[in-house]
C-alpha cells in the first residue's frame, strides 16, 4: 500500500486529487498540502521517520505552478536526499514534461485528472517502489540473462527499473512530449526518450502516419474518420484525436488506399 502526499495550492484541485487517490485500492493513506513549503516540512518529517516509520511517504503527487517554491523547485530539492519519495507531477501545463522527467519523475499527469490516467500513475509508482525495495534487499544468486538484440517489431521501454519490450503492432498512437514520446496501447502507455519525428521516420513503413504536430497514429487502429464543420478527427478506441489541416488530405488518401487496396 502506497503512502501518498498530494500538493496543490488550489483547494478544489487538491480535494479532487485526494478523493481519487483515496478511492484507489493501492493507496493506503493520502494527505494534502497547500504549497511546496508545507509539503517540504511534511517530507522532512517523513524522512526522519524512516521508510517504515509512521510518518513515511512513498510518493508525492505534485502540482508545478504554485506561489513561492514551485513544484519543480521542490522536486530538485528532493534529489538531494538519500532516499526521497517518488514524484508524480499533476499539472495543467504540458510544457514542463521534459524538465519533470529529467528530475526522475515517475509520471506526468495533465489536468483535468481522469481516474484511469491517475490509476496508471499510481501503478507506475507502486511498481517503482517495489523495485527499489527489491534492489535494497540482500542479493541472491545472480540469474543468467540472455543477451540479444531486440527485433525491429518491438521497442524497449522502462517500467519501474525494468526494461520491457512492447510490440509495435500493439501501439495505437504516439503522443509527443518534448524530447519524449508517449506510446499508447490498449493496456496503457509508456514514455520513451525518443522524439516523435524519429518514430515517424522509423515506423512510416509500418503504417504509422503523422496527423498533428503532437500525434502519430497507426492506420490499422483508426476506427473512424470524422468530419465536422470543417474539422477532421480520428477515433482510436474511445479516444478522439484532432487532425491538422496540413495532414488531413494525406490521411484521407492513405485510408482510402488502405480500404480499396
TrEMBL record:
<dbReference type="InterPro" id="IPR001789">
    <property type="entry name" value="Sig_transdc_resp-reg_receiver"/>
</dbReference>
<dbReference type="GO" id="GO:0003677">
    <property type="term" value="F:DNA binding"/>
</dbReference>
<keyword id="KW-0597">Phosphoprotein</keyword>
<feature type="domain" description="Response regulatory">
    <location>
        <begin position="3"/>
        <end position="126"/>
    </location>
</feature>
<dbReference type="Pfam" id="PF04397">
    <property type="entry name" value="LytTR"/>
</dbReference>
<protein>
    <submittedName>
        <fullName>Regulatory protein</fullName>
    </submittedName>
</protein>
<dbReference type="GO" id="GO:0000156">
    <property type="term" value="F:phosphorelay response regulator activity"/>
</dbReference>
<feature type="region of interest" description="Disordered">
    <location>
        <begin position="129"/>
        <end position="149"/>
    </location>
</feature>
<dbReference type="InterPro" id="IPR007492">
    <property type="entry name" value="LytTR_DNA-bd_dom"/>
</dbReference>
<feature type="modified residue" description="4-aspartylphosphate">
    <location>
        <position position="63"/>
    </location>
</feature>
<dbReference type="Pfam" id="PF00072">
    <property type="entry name" value="Response_reg"/>
</dbReference>
<dbReference type="InterPro" id="IPR046947">
    <property type="entry name" value="LytR-like"/>
</dbReference>
<dbReference type="InterPro" id="IPR011006">
    <property type="entry name" value="CheY-like_superfamily"/>
</dbReference>
<feature type="domain" description="HTH LytTR-type">
    <location>
        <begin position="155"/>
        <end position="257"/>
    </location>
</feature>
